[in-house]
Design a protein that fits this description.
heterodimer; A: D-amino Acid Aminotransferase, Chain A, domain 1; 8 domains; 37% helix; B: 351 residues; alpha/beta; Glucose Oxidase, domain 1; Rossmann fold
Chain lengths: 1070, 351
């Protein structure tokens, strides 16, 4: 069936902000889908609340709306744009759920919008647990059997039916208390009796235990005619029990014989045929490692994180093909873009091994509970390609940027074997290194396999690496032969890893290698294992003989990507990298990108002229540079990951476009930077580095409280606090010096002022500011976690002039060529600088979209030598629009147990949404709505606790809430204060006062909003911390900054209704 | 045990150094590649590879070892197996042997540590080539090499692998006279699953011998080499077409083609893998199939129609008689290894 020509205008719904479990992969698939639709001449209307994505560029769709993802907004967009079709499966679970809601509410019918691709009926059949179960029964597909029982007899009877071992899960007990695994009747009798006793409702769920089963996934595609293929199989290195997003995953499946493989493949195809998927679908299986027994875990009838991984692992663009199928094409009518000759109706053959490793936020949240289970915790992932498992794993490990170049980890070495044995029972982010350490101590692999459920095949591969590490330790550089060196490089060891093991520097290893001609070659990812000639410019390195990547003699530029998504370095940087490439291409320059993140647009082989899917370490990057010999390298868009390569590449005489590495240093080195500011007569909060508690207290006397304190050796605000008095400071300093006495603590005067931020472009003489952003929360809240407003609402023209002047002077003094990001505090009429980043920042996509200034293009051109003036941008600030855009941060703290919820100097948000309005309050309102914040109304219950310090200042806000008819619930301190000022309040017990207490109030769902203004964060024992965690885990809205609450009160007074606000397209922001 | 260095020398002079495993010996054969990512055991025991050196493009081979169930023949017939990395510590609940031991026991030469992708690309570009594997690295003179290359004679490969005598597999259903040109057990399994009684004949059985068992239909198996090298089989097929329903898979398909007056043509490097899309011209449905052939059927006579084509290169993948009861396919509906999507073709064959 060829393209259905009745499809003319399609609505695509995005996945919204980046949260754990729903991240950049949907920018990749959504963008790809939009492109695929538009190249068929279809008009695309896009709605997504996330401003940081490529997807929400005005150019990606014909009409792009950065609007809240609510049914009302979508209905308004549909009414305005009148699309004839909707494609449901491109925006993750969010897009799928909204599509179903639009359908259920009759909105699609009302506006004659039909669903193309997989139908709503099919989606529901796949998503609804009950109907999916029925379908599996109908099609003879086994699922994991479970039954709820309320007697021990019932438990025994059911267990007999399904066979032991079984899992007992008591209903409604916290954290599964009273449950367990029963191996036989005797054990089940005991555990079931206990579970039934402990359960509030006297019920337990008896489920077949599939502990240790392999977890296998298939990505399947089916067209409207029923042609069906599997794109890729993937095997989780961690067995069933760890969320696939938190598992190390290898593609293709490694441990299945053809019989098992084809059994599961056929099952996957049968399932999606029976649901009548039209597009992509992911099917997850559990496979008994000791038989052919398997069970279907679940399916995802849409593109997913796994489909993004499968696309990158194979070169098969799943989202693009799914979009074409939605337009009516059959698989055998769609060309395979990789070969240009064959068709999409085939199954990719891999001739390499792909490994994905999750990137967890625990390096940032050191206090978090790190146990991995069925709820995903990773914020991002890295992918590595090698032609052995070992090489891919080692590449993956060094891509994580956790300073690991081998499997030898200091923290694991310090632990006893007993401790390690205990620790590997429970999966967490350290398990790979800990089991490697056990293997290093000759602990039996079979036993580790028993404990962890990991297949001995994988453990033997890890042992191979460990054995080689031990072997290497026996050598020094002068005893190592070229043959051996080649052997270790083939195995995947980094120069840095070898250097650590033999006791020399990475530079020495490189020199040795190069002098013996031991250099990597690059092989193509071509979907067909070399069977057909491929045109895809997608490469990975190996230490083989034959190189396939042929450098051209065109003018070319290398852009360094930003690696895995993590808190503080998110999708925004991928946005910047991609736009830089787009700009370079526009000027006929050949573009090359290196990146290791499979979720992103930058690693789509269609994005750049050449894609190297490689780690972003000095060695891996330099090797590519030596082969490609680019005219220049651009580092400014790859976040800290790219910037930290600056000095090394400079030393290697690699031409770097833009700001010189020396200048980057000057901005990042505190002392040098202080000197510069002094010279320029620009103010910054006074501060000093101190080495002892006494010195700190003396310094504090001089500066005056409150003070901002932080360890000097960490980035991103980690460990940063505001101390208000000597007592707090003493506690902080003593603790800090106990943890690390070799590094100073930085003490700065804390200025309780308005925070402002600019991204600017400098060509060496002229400086252009696309826009000044004002932070809603006062200084002290990390800029990435603040609500950010453009254009600024409270900044005088004089102050703007000052900002322009200071920005210009700093940029010129630092000899910035390209991007610079500066954060200011306006305090008592003065302007202070708090941070300068000589690179692109996370606000660039936001400011680009709301101002319409092609920021990245300008910066890229400047780096290539053009002048702002010649491009039509004189020094100055871009004129401000009438409309207002407010960026609201989105947090995933709910999914990270024991992580602080309140706002502070440490960044914790994972994503952001944008509210665009005709005025400030409307924009802020939309931002709140997009952030899924329920605006309180008359009758709403607000749990309010305010620390003593801030109580008085809170009175005007309390007054507003009261006037709007909100009711207060508080514990003693705040309740007394409220009553004293004549407000009625319902009292709740503090935790120490017994039950039911304030936590029960939150859990019961009786409060609509929690406002908690803490004295300080991160004290896990405090009531406040527990309250905030409880609110977050129970999905109750919580605010922890007075400024946010005050702004909310203003919004509440406006009594907006989202259904009545007309959506604003990005291109209509004026 | 220190593994022995060995090298592959191609007809065009290119050399690939690696390590010998399995049965260490000097051999000459035709070098072909297979892109299937699973099913190395089935491939190794596939008699269609007789006389060939098989390069597996998937780099990790031997991961789940060898078991005695997934055999496609009693004894492998390939000359050598060329891999990037063989696995010495397989793990699977059915693992009984490892790859190295299995090859050694069956006197099959193994070569590992080869840049298999580069080798594959060379075969893709230059077409199938002869190759020599030797442990006497750099020792062989050009003349010695030429002699070895010239010594390769694959014209009797079918004879080498076909059953020497007639045997019967009991069953209660249709009686299939089955000519074994190097049969994969998978095909017999599919027939057994359908309760067929199967009388298996050597490749050179005559029409009279076949008719003597009074079969319901004739089926001709897959097998190695060039269909032009087995005129006996073509002759028997020709004599029986019209008298019996005649079916064929792979080599059997080529034989039927020749018997019906088609031409056969050698592809540059053939189709070897488990991801080949094939379109059923009647239903329009595309299926992913397992394939292993170098030759194809061309120039169909009036009596025949094309039933399946390869989506990638448009070559003929199946034929059907318009009035005569003849059906055959170039791909392997029995899979083993590969996708099971076209297994129902055996139902059509027996219908």
């Amino acid at each position: 069936m060829p393209r259905d020509n009745s499809i003319k205008k399609v609505l695509v719904i995005g996945s919204g902000p980046i949260v754990i479990g729903q991240a950049a992969e949907f920018d990749y698939s959504g963008t790809q889908a939009c492109q695929a639709l538009r190249e068929e001449g279809v008009e695309v209307v896009l709605v997504n609340s996330n401003p940081a994505t490529i997807m929400t560029d005005a150019q990606t769709a014909d009409r792009t709306y950065i609007e809240p993802l609510t049914v009302q907004t979508l209905e308004n967009v549909i009414a305005k744009e009148r699309p004839d079709s909707l494609i449901a499966g491109m925006g993750g679970q969010t897009g799928l759920n909204l599509s179903c809601e639009l359908y259920d509410k009759g909105i699609l019918d009302k506006y004659n919008v039909r669903v193309i691709g997989t139908s709503i009926e099919s989606i529901k059949e796949g998503e609804d647990r009950e109907s999916f179960k029925e379908l599996m029964e109908r099609t003879n597909q086994p699922m994991i059997r479970g039954e709820i029982v309320n007697t021990v007899e019932g438990a025994l009877k059911f267990a007999k039916e399904i066979g032991y071992p079984v899992i007992v899960r008591p209903a409604y007990t916290l954290g599964g208390t009273g449950g367990g695994i029963a191996e036989d009747e005797g054990e089940l009798g005991e555990i079931a009796a206990q579970g039934i006793h402990l359960s509030r409702v006297g019920q337990v769920l008896i489920e077949k235990c599939i502990r240790g089963w392999k977890e296998i996934e298939f990505e399947v595609i089916r067209d409207g005619d029923g042609n069906c293929i599997t794109v890729c199989s993937m095997e989780n290195v961690d067995p069933v029990g760890v969320h696939t997003g938190d598992s190390i995953v290898v593609a293709p499946a490694q441990t299945l014989a053809d019989k098992e493989y084809q059994m599961l493949r056929t099952a996957a195809i049968d399932i999606i045929n029976s649901i009548e998927i039209k597009g992509g679908c992911n099917v997850q299986f559990a496979l008994n490692p000791n038989s052919f027994e398997y069970a279907v875990i679940e399916i995802n009838p849409r593109v997913s994180r796994s489909s993004a991984l499968a696309s990158k692992a194979t070169g098969y663009p799943i989202a693009k093909i799914a979009a074409k199928i939605a337009l009516g094409y059959r698989l055998d009518e769609i060309k395979n873009a990789v070969t240009g000759k064959t068709y999409a109706c085939f199954e990719p053959a891999l001739d390499y091994c792909v490994i994905k490793i999750p990137k967890w936020p625990f390096d940032k949240f050191y206090g978090a509970k790190r146990t991995l289970g069925t709820k995903m915790m990773a914020t991002g992932e890295v992918m590595a390609i090698g032609n052995s498992f070992e090489a891919a794993l080692l590449k993956g490990v060094r891509s994580l940027e956790i300073k690991q170049f081998t499997l030898e980890r200091e923290a694991a070495k310090e632990k006893s074997s007993e401790v390690l044995r205990g620790r590997i029972k429970t999966p967490d982010d350290e398990r790979l290194f800990e089991l490697a350490e056990l293997i290093r101590r000759d602990y039996r692999i079979e036993k580790i396999s028993q404990i962890t459920g990991m297949d001995p095949f994988f453990l033997k591969k890890i042992k191979n690496i460990v054995d080689m590490e031990e072997e290497l330790k026996e050598y020094r550089l002068d005893t190592l032969t070229p043959e051996l060196m080649r052997k270790y490089k083939v195995m995947g060891f980094a120069d840095q890893g070898i250097a650590q093991l033999i006791g020399c520097t990475a530079a020495e290893v490189r020199k040795y290698r190069e002098s013996h001609g031991i250099l990597p070659v690059y092989k193509m990812v071509d979907t067909c294992a070399g069977e057909f000639e491929a045109v895809s410019p997608y490469y990975y390195s190996t230490y083989d003989e034959y190189n396939e990547a042929e450098p051209s003699d065109k003018k070319k530029v290398l852009v360094i990507g930003s690696g895995p998504i993590r808190i503080g370095q998110g999708i925004e940087f991928d946005y910047c990298s991609v736009h830089s490439i787009v700009a370079l291409k526009k000027f006929g320059i050949e573009t090359i990108i290196i990146n290791n993140n499979p979720e992103t647009v930058s690693t789509d082989f269609d994005t750049s002229d050449k894609l190297y899917f490689e780690p972003l370490t000095e060695e891996d990057v330099l090797s590519i540079i030596e082969l490609e010999k680019p005219d220049g390298v651009i580092l400014q868009f790859g976040g800290q990951t790219a910037i930290k390569l600056a000095n090394f590449l400079d030393e290697m005489n690699v031409p770097i476009f833009g700001t010189r590495p020396k200048q980057i240093d000057e901005a990042e080195d505190r002392e040098k930077f202080d000197e510069l500011l002094e010279e320029l007569d620009i103010k910054r909060p006074k501060g000093k580095a101190v080495w002892t508690t006494e010195e700190g207290i003396a310094e504090a006397e001089r500066l005056g409280y409150p003070l901002l304190v932080r360890p000097s050796y960490v980035l991103g605000g980690q460990g940063m606090e505001i101390t208000h008095n000597e007592q707090e400071l003493t506690i902080y300093l003593e603790d800090a010096f106990k943890k690390d006495k070799d590094n100073p603590v930085l003490i700065d005067r804390y200025l309780n002022g308005r925070e402002l931020e600019v991204d600017a472009i400098c060509d060496g003489t002229d400086v252009f500011i696309p826009g000044i952003m004002e932070h809603l929360e006062r200084a002290g809240v990390h800029s990435g976690d603040s609500i950010s407003i453009y254009p600024p609402q409270n900044v005088s023209d004089e102050m703007k002039k000052k900002i322009m002047d200071v920005t210009r002077r700093i940029s010129v003094a630092l000899k910035v060529i390209g991007m610079i990001n500066i954060q200011f505090i306006e305090f008592r009429g003065d302007l202070y600088i708090i941070e300068v980043n000589p690179r692109s920042s996370r606000t660039v996509p936001y400011i680009t979209k709301v101002t319409g200034v092609p920021v990245i293009e300008l910066a890229t051109r400047v780096m290539l030598g053009e002048k702002l003036a010649d491009m039509g941008y004189a020094s100055g600030i871009n004129p401000e629009p009438e409309m207002v855009a407010v960026k609201v941060p989105i947090f995933s703290t709910k999914k990270l147990p024991m992580v602080e919820v309140s706002l502070g100097p440490e960044m914790r948000s994972t994503g952001e949404v944008l509210g665009v309005g005709r005025n400030y309050l409307e924009a802020l309102y939309k931002g709140f709505v997009a952030a899924e914040f329920d605006i309180p109304r008359a009758g709403s219950n607000v749990l309010l606790t305010v620390c003593d310090r801030d109580k008085e200042a809170f009175l005007p806000i309390i007054e507003k809430f009261d006037k709007l008819g909100c009711r207060f619930i508080s514990t003693t301190g705040t309740a007394d204060f409220l009553e004293k000022h004549g407000y009625s309040v319902q009292r709740a017990k503090k935790i120490s006062e017994g039950v039911p207490n304030v936590l029960d109030v939150i859990r019961s769902g009786m409060c609509d909003l929690v406002i908690d203004i803490p004295k300080k964060g991160n004290d896990k024992e405090s009531d406040g911390f527990k309250m905030r965690r409880t609110a977050s885990e129970c999905s109750v809205n919580i605010l922890t900054s007075q400024d946010t609450v005050a702004a909310l009160a203003e919004v509440m007074e406006q009594k907006f209704n989202i259904a009545e606000l007309e959506p604003i397209a990005v291109s209509d922001i004026k | 045990m220190q593994s022995k260095a060995a090298e592959l020398i191609l007809e065009n002079g290119m050399r690939f150094k690696g390590k010998a495993f399995g049965y260490v010996n000097d051999v000459v054969g035709e070098v072909v590649f297979s892109t299937s990512m699973t099913g190395y055991q089935e491939a190794i025991t596939d008699l269609s590879f007789c006389g060939q050196m098989v390069v597996l493009t998937y780099p990790l081979i031997g991961n789940y070892g060898i078991n005695l169930e997934d055999m496609e023949s009693d004894k492998p017939a390939l000359t050598a197996l060329i891999v990037r990395e063989k696995c010495d510590y397989p793990n699977n609940f059915r693992t009984e042997m490892d790859l190295d031991g299995f090859l050694r026991q069956n006197r099959v030469v193994g070569l590992e540590g080869i840049d298999t992708r580069a080798l594959t690309r060379i075969i893709r570009e230059s077409g199938c080539m002869k190759g020599i594997i030797t442990t006497e690295i750099g020792m062989l003179s050009d003349r010695a090499l030429k002699e070895r290359f010239d010594s390769l004679d694959n014209s009797d490969v079918v004879k080498r692998v076909s059953t020497p005598e007639v045997y019967t597999i009991p069953g209660t259903g249709k009686h299939v006279a089955f000519i074994d040109a190097g049969v994969k057990k998978g095909i017999l399994r599919e027939l057994k699953k359908r309760d067929c009684k199967i009388t298996v004949f050597p490749y050179n059985a005559t029409a009279d011998e076949v008719m003597a068992v009074n079969p319901d239909l004739l089926m001709i198996s897959n097998g190695p080499g060039d269909p032009g090298d087995i005129p006996e089989t073509v002759e028997t097929a020709r004599a029986l077409i019209g008298k019996l329903p005649v079916r064929g898979v792979c080599m059997g398909h080529l034989v039927i083609g020749l018997a019906m007056g088609c031409k056969t043509r050698k592809l540059k490097f053939g189709h070897h893998g488990a991801n080949q899309p094939v379109k059923n011209l009647k239903t329009g449905r595309v299926s992913i199939t397992s394939q292993n052939h170098n030759y194809i059927v061309d120039d169909l006579p009036e009596e025949l129609e094309v039933s399946y084509i390869n989506v990638n290169d448009g070559t003929c993948e199946g034929i059907r008689g318009k009035s005569i009861d003849v059906q055959s396919v170039q791909f392997h509906p029995e899979a083993s290894p590969g996708p099971l999507d076209t297994r129902n073709i055996f139902d059509d064959f027996l219908a």
